[in-house]
UniProtKB/TrEMBL annotation:
Record's protein name: Trypsin-like peptidase domain-containing protein
InterPro entries, alphabetized: Peptidase_S1_PA
Species of the source: Micromonospora harpali
Length: 553
């Protein structure tokens, strides 16, 4: 973790003409500052956002470089993006009157953001020297879905973003890179919810910021060419539904055909229109929300084109994008890829890689193995039917399903000794293995018949089975956890009763024995056990109240 603002000299404080601290900012390079447009407007005394940048300058203090004097700053040409009618934008790039020696500016980076732990350093009025607030990023929200929601970190729930944090950098805990800019907060009671603009959205509004961005793009250049040709409506709908998580799928196999095909153009369109940096401003956000063929903004974390590239390069690309410092594409990197893959990934042209088999075995396979468990969304695109590669990937997934079903059976067997009414298992691996054997035989025939249709159906069926067995394991774990928590709760109330002198109390004793027998004597219905524990807790509360009031036992 690189959480140490004392070693991050790029934190700046912005004051208005009255001397009040009005927000935070991030030094970029040696003389530019990124902040919110509304902070600048307030600093120069403008009550409302102006379409044109203010001519007046603001005062910028280098709080982590205290020996350097404050500098005045003005908006650079092309660096003003005031908040739009719906609140989009709200970005300003300032230029300092004098450069800062040593180029101590921050580095911006695109990273997968879902459930990312970040922190921000702002200047609320009660802490003029600044305060660090931790948060966890969740789904897109805000105007045109441009923002990411920041919820207070469970590790520090009492600290929250408030006035004085606007313009602050949102910093990734693990890597120390700036992944966004704090723009707003919700002031409702006990909320603690705030919002940031991700780096890719900042770049969409203000391409000038590219000079301070490190790391690769989240989209390979080959996938950014959309063109104006016809598109495949069915592929568009399936792709959008998949990345919008409206279908219970984790892996989607698509045969796109050559880059000139309508299916290929459709996939590229989905990539561009889902990307925060690349989606054109001409796309109406309201219309986009109603369009079932358009994936939500930010729904594809990383999109790669595998054509002509070796597996090692693609593995390094994935690991580099998530900020992993592990070895790229070594023989032991499979587990690392499965653990580190972004939440949503698209790899097109798998069969045109320089080594398609190794790509499936060493890169795609390990990620797909963990897709159901981690609830990933992985689209695997082939330019040709690629029957051999798809059968190999299917065989791998069926083997994984067999193992997952075995683990679920063992898990269920252990829990059913304590809990009744567990959801039933639906084993499917054996049947799918038989069907796979038939497909392998058909693939060797001169005329394989409707092989491609059966293969596509089996890919979907195997993915669905993996999704369901993973959901079953999660449900079994939840039931076991609930049973253990009820035991702990009963023990806690028992300790409370003993401490209150109720060891021989008849009413609480009977209530305790009922709850204890349900939880320890054999399989129980969790609802009945919960009712019994709560009844005992209420009996203890009443008995203690009676004792305090002097009533007889």
């Amino acid at each position: 973790m690189k959480e140490n603002h004392g070693r991050q000299p790029w934190v700046v404080r912005i004051r208005g003409v009255s001397g009040l601290i009005l927000g935070s900012g991030t030094l970029l390079g040696d003389r530019h500052v990124l902040t919110c447009a509304h902070v600048v407007d307030r600093a120069v005394g403008r009550a409302a956002a102006g379409a044109d940048p203010p001519a007046d300058r603001v005062q910028v203090e280098l709080v982590r470089l205290p020996r350097l004097p404050a500098r005045s700053a003005g908006v650079v040409a092309g660096g003003w993006v005031p908040a739009g009618r719906e609140g989009q934008g709200d970005i300003a790039l300032l230029e300092l009157s004098d450069p800062v020696p040593g180029r101590p500016g921050a580095e911006l980076r695109r990273l997968p953001l879902w459930e990312k732990h970040v922190y921000a350093f702002g200047f609320p009025k009660e802490f003029r020297d600044g305060e660090t607030v931790h948060a966890v990023l969740h789904g897109g929200t805000g105007p045109a879905n441009e923002w990411m929601q920041m919820d207070p970190s469970p590790a520090a729930p009492g600290l929250r973003v408030r006035s004085g944090f606007s313009g602050a950098a949102a910093v990734d805990n693990e890597t120390g890179y700036v992944v966004g800019m704090v723009v707003s907060y919700y002031s409702g009671p006990a909320s603690g919810r705030s919002f940031m603009i991700p780096v890719e959205t900042l770049l969409n509004h203000l391409p000038l910021l590219q000079a301070w961005v490190v790391g690769d793009s989240s989209v390979d250049r080959e996938l950014t060419s959309v063109g104006g040709g016809r598109e495949d409506g069915e592929v568009a709908r399936r792709t959008a539904e998949f990345f919008a998580r409206r279908s219970p799928q984790n892996v989607l196999v698509v045969v796109t055909g050559p880059p000139t095909s309508t299916a290929s153009a459709t996939v590229r369109r989905a990539v561009v229109l889902s990307n925060r940096q690349l989606r054109p401003s001409s796309v109406d956000p309201a219309a986009a929300e109603r369009d079932p063929s358009l994936p939500p903004l930010g729904s594809i974390d990383l999109a790669l084109d595998a054509a002509g590239k070796p597996p090692r390069e693609l593995a390094a690309r994935i690991l580099g994008f998530v900020g992993s410092t592990g070895p790229p594409a070594e023989a032991a990197a499979g587990d690392l890829l499965g653990d580190a893959s972004p939440r949503s990934l698209l790899i097109d042209g798998v069969d045109e890689s320089s080594d398609p088999k190794a790509l499936v075995d060493d890169v795609v396979g390990p990620i797909v193995d963990r897709a159901a468990e981690r609830d990933l969304r992985i689209l695997v695109g082939f330019r040709s039917p690629a029957v051999g590669l798809r059968l190999a990937l299917l065989a791998r997934r069926i083997a994984g399903l067999r193992e997952a079903e075995h683990l679920a059976r063992e898990h269920r067997r252990r829990i059913e000794a304590r809990v009744r009414g567990l959801p039933p298992a639906k084993p499917r691996a054996s049947q799918l293995r038989i069907r796979l054997t038939a497909l392998l035989a058909a693939a060797r025939e001169p005329d394989p018949g409707p092989l491609l249709e059966h293969l596509a159906a089996m890919e979907q069926g195997t993915d669905r089975a993996l999704h369901e067995v993973t959901a079953l394991r999660h449900e079994l774990t939840a039931r076991a956890t609930e049973h253990q928590q009820l035991r702990g709760l009963l023990d806690a109330h028992r300790a409370r009763a003993v401490a209150g002198g109720l060891t021989e109390h008849r009413g609480t004793g009977q209530s305790y024995r009922r709850a204890h027998d349900l939880l320890w004597a054999g399989p129980c219905d969790l609802a009945d056990a919960a009712d019994a524990v709560h009844a005992y807790a209420e009996a203890v509360r009443r008995a203690l109240d009676d004792r305090r009031e002097g009533a007889p036992s």
